[in-house]
Amino acid sequence: MSLRSMTIQPNLDDLLNKGDIIDKCVSGDDYKIDPNGDGIKIDFSNSSPSFSFSFQESRFFLTIDLLKKGIPGDVLDFVRPKIRITQKVNHRRDCSARLLFAAQLNSERFLWDPEGKVQKEKTREWEQWVDAEWEEMSIEFSGYPSGIRHLNILNQGSDRLFWKGFYGPKITDFKIEIIMPSC
After folding, report:
1. Which residue segments constitute the domains of the chain, with CATH numbers given?
2. Is 102's pLDDT higher than 70?
């Protein structure tokens, strides 16, 4: 068997509707799919549509079965390739926002484990009236224990002025990389 690195770059339809995403959960005032980056003066010609979070604290949670994505259990147990989750983030200039981006590796658990031993998180906050370019946020796992089969991903955010509507943080160009060690 040839061990090659791979990239999983689902489009929005994959994230929301495909069977290899075991679970998706949205809470709060929901989110919207924004085809043109509402309120952000950025060229979107090379980007996919974005998720826009609302004024209430909202969550977007995914569980991905790594085996169903084509990564053999033996590779996860013995080779333990790096797993990198990356997304681009931004906000509307006229509204401050906050985003928590977290990921967790689990064996057979399909839900977020609050006591998860293999998890990482990052927070990004934007002030009102600050121009921002799309920036990349990433989380990378390596050296994780044997038995990992699922990747849980959580994005939680809101605008900080509590404006009714979808003025919170925005996420686009979501991807997962499985990076095999070089020989």
Report:
1. 6-179 (2.60.120.260)
2. yes
